[in-house]
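tokens incoming
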């Protein structure tokens, strides 16, 4: 019963974070990724899509707890931190593979609604079909519930992850670049994405499937090869002006030859 009030807050937290973000950034000078605006119709539709799905995470955590599927122990700093890390790492893996699967023709009906937002804005971060958010959260909570019977799991570690996810997801859909030019080529930038990464996924529909990290996209060759160039452009306050715009790097002779011979074969430099 100790968890009811925090769960009620979690059910509304995503909307509060989205509107808090809009208020904070309204008056600030920002560097945009795409110099295009979402229409009022898009914003209205995104908001409509969000009411059923945003509270779902809290409902599913509550259901797992109250059914006994998820066993939570009293929180200590130690179990709080490792629970957060477990949820973070597993969500990156689960999101990458389920997201890629939902881009398959046979499963696209689950994910299509989210892709109606070609140009993202903070409200796009809560615009999903019910089934998509259900699959996302059941995958996360299901694994954590299973391991909670072997490893002590902190409810607040899971809780903190969800708040962190709400914040990073609204930033990821903000269509503004928050890092310096060249960030995507630094060691940390090769792991942690900037908002440009997901803006490109929405504008181009495919590739850049990762949530907060790009590691699995790099591993499976599903990252847009001009991500670092688009990131630097956006960070230099030179946004792209068309959804179809590409900043594909120039290929050297051997790469060109390799591509034409094998048709679609990717060079090692693209990893
Ligand atoms: Zn997608
Ligand atoms: Zn998205």
């Amino acid at each position: 019963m100790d968890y009811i009030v925090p769960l009620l807050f979690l059910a509304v937290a995503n909307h509060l974070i989205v509107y808090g973000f809009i208020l904070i950034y309204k008056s600030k000078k920002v560097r945009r990724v795409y110099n295009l605006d979402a229409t009022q119709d898009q914003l209205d539709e995104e908001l409509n899509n969000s009411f059923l799905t945003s509270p779902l995470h809290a409902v599913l955590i509550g259901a797992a707890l109250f059914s006994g599927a998820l066993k939570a122990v009293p929180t200590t700093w130690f179990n709080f931190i490792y629970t957060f890390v477990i949820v973070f790492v597993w969500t990156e893996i689960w999101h990458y593979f389920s997201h890629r699967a939902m881009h398959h023709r046979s499963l696209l009906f689950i994910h299509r609604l989210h892709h109606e937002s070609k140009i993202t804005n903070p409200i796009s971060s809560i615009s999903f079909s019910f089934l998509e958010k259900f699959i996302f959260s059941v995958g996360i909570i299901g694994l954590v519930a299973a391991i909670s019977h072997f490893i002590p799991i902190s409810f607040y570690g899971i809780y903190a992850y969800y708040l962190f996810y709400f914040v990073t997801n609204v930033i990821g859909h903000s269509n503004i670049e928050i890092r310096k030019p060249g960030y995507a080529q630094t060691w940390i930038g090769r792991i942690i994405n900037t908002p440009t990464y997901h803006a490109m996924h929405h504008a181009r529909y495919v590739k850049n499937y990762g949530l907060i990290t790009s590691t699995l996209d790099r591993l499976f060759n599903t990252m847009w090869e001009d991500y670092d160039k688009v990131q630097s452009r956006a960070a230099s306050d030179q946004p792209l002006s068309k959804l179809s715009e590409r900043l594909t790097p120039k290929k050297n002779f051997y790469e060109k030859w390799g591509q034409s011979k094998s048709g679609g074969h990717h060079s090692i430099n693209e990893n």
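note: The first strand starts at residue 31 and ends at 32.
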